[in-house]
Amino acid sequence: MLRRLYDWTMAQASAPHALWVLAFVAFIESSVFPIPPDVLMIPMVLAAPRRAWLIALVATVSSVLGGMLGYGIGYFFYDTIGQPILEAMGKAEAMEAFNGKFNDVGFWAVLIAGMTPFPYKVITIMSGWTAMPLGTFIVTSIVARALRFFLVAGLLRAFGAPIRDFIDRYLGLVFTAFVALLLGGFLLVKYL
What is the pLDDT along the chain (192 residues), one digit of tens a residue? Predict the structure, then answer.
């Protein structure tokens, strides 16, 4: 089934309505869909490099809006089902402690998930579940998703098809290394 979804997504890249399909895929990927929008975005930018920034913008806006849906799923699912179950089990206090810890680092969690191969949908739902401040979630999502999609679009626009293999193989690793260096730098400054 996953292969059929992937093949369908790839086939949409050359369709006349590809931007709408990209918007839809980026939206639902942020909360439930297993295929990342990059799969659709990469062939679209390669086919029309002059539209790279528009394609990245559509992916960014749609992904953030979809992330807000994921946030809503986490927020409302927890309140209606999760919390009563935890209270019945006597675990409500443990969940409150977890929520506080997650929200203390929530900015970083959303930033990392939005830029790296870690499934963004997990963090969008968890952000709602822990009641992370919505403003923090939205701003961080915009920054993370824009960095990711505009960097991919820029690389493809500048270097064309030869950079595609690099993006497919190493971009997630590069983003992960960047975030690790950034966090390491903050820790170094804090403790020196």
Answer: 556 766 666 677 777 888 999 999 999 988 877 778 888 888 888 888 899 999 999 999 999 999 999 899 889 987 776 666 556 666 667 667 767 777 777 777 788 777 766 778 888 888 888 889 999 999 999 999 999 999 889 988 988 877 767 766 766 666 566 556 555 655 555 565
CA distance 121 to 126: 8
Burial class (CB in 10 A: 0-12, 13-18, 19+), 16: exposed
Structure token pair of residue 17: 């309505």
Q: How far is CA 184 from the centre of its chain?
A: 22
Contact (CB, 8 A) for 13 and 25: no
Alpha-carbon span 1 to 107, nearest angstrom: 34
